[in-house]
User: What shape does this take?
Amino acid sequence: MKLNGVAVRFEEVVRGKITSGLEIANLKTTIVSLREMIEAMPTDPSCNMFIPFGKNISGECICSDLSKFPHLLVAGTTGSGKSIFMHGLIMSLVMRNRPEDCKIVLVDPKRVEMSKYKDLPHLLCPIIKEPSEAKVCMDKLIEEMERRYRLFETAEVRDIRAFNSSYAPKNGLKKLPFISVFIDEYADLSDTCKNIGEAVVRLAQKARAAGIHLVIATQRPSVQVITGVIKANIPVRVALSMSSAIDSQTIIGQGGAEDLVGHGDMLIDCSLIARNGLTRAQGCLVDDSEIEKVVDFINSQGLGTMYDDNFLDLVDHEAEAKAAEAAMPTLSRAEIKAQSDEEFYEMVKEQVMATEYTSISKIQRQFGVGFPRAGKLFAQLQNDGIVALAPDSPSSSKGCRVLVHAPNELDDIKLGSDN
Assistant: This one.
């Protein structure tokens, strides 16, 4: 009653004391700058993946190691400071790491939030704006994760830091960069691309040692979007101002986030910062002009964009192929039997050349033939040089790449073989 109805948050046990406490917002707001957060972070090379959270109630700068989390979940309503917090994390990584040491993937369904980073040499691929491209990128990251684990198996090391510090220099290999994936508006992405959650879970479960880390932000932390499996594999959560106690319960397991004052006021659930309970902090403010200055400074070094070639083609060829198959006219079994083997092969060859990938099972489905006949047709396509002899990667489900897409290309291949 003495507080005149001011919304306060009750802390059962104040850390370091034997008393309880009421958290009351200050009358005057103070800005926590990115500069003071960066200056307070450790400068040791092994601390290159440290990220800033903000200042706690005691005025101490809170930061921790993203490579030990290993993933981060951020939630908050519109205007709570969610995107500003994400900018602070990205800025700290690009300011403290060279492009060959840390790569960043930005998934921005809103198209405008991350546009200032478009020419940054730290980017693994161009900024992703389409849900279908995000799904393909996640699948490629899973392939990269599996490739790295095969490397670690050969090198007999446990994680990326051991590989970079001991095995790579001795054997003349390039160091592997850390990869940080920032996904903004995950709820919208999940609604548009239903099966992206499976790829996120796979990365969350086992990508830590491979140096791939996820930072996922959403303004709607419902149990349909942030499933129990995702929560179990993303142990560090940041809750900004929430609209209800139910959303607060979903993200941090208890109420309290609905009482935050907004503008970067957050509750942090991270065992590396506090073993028990939540830590309240004020996030740092990152202005658009600061982002532009940092990006311009990095670009002025003449590095240019340094994209990974494997992540430049993010078109979902499998979905396109299925759409093309659905649009193609299907023949009845009687018509297929009536055609001679040569005529049927010519028809199959013509339709296969109109796609990007094919496989035995795809020929079975598309032309309604059995496995033996589909296998013979597929082998004949490979012998004629129309289809690649092996898939792009062992784990690929798309089949083998179609090498020839026009009859004149086939004539050139035959002419070359005759010579």
Summary: The domain at 31-311 is CATH 3.40.50.300 (Rossmann fold). The CA atoms of residues 328 and 351 lie 9 Å apart. The mean pLDDT is 87. The chain has two domains: 31-311, 317-418.
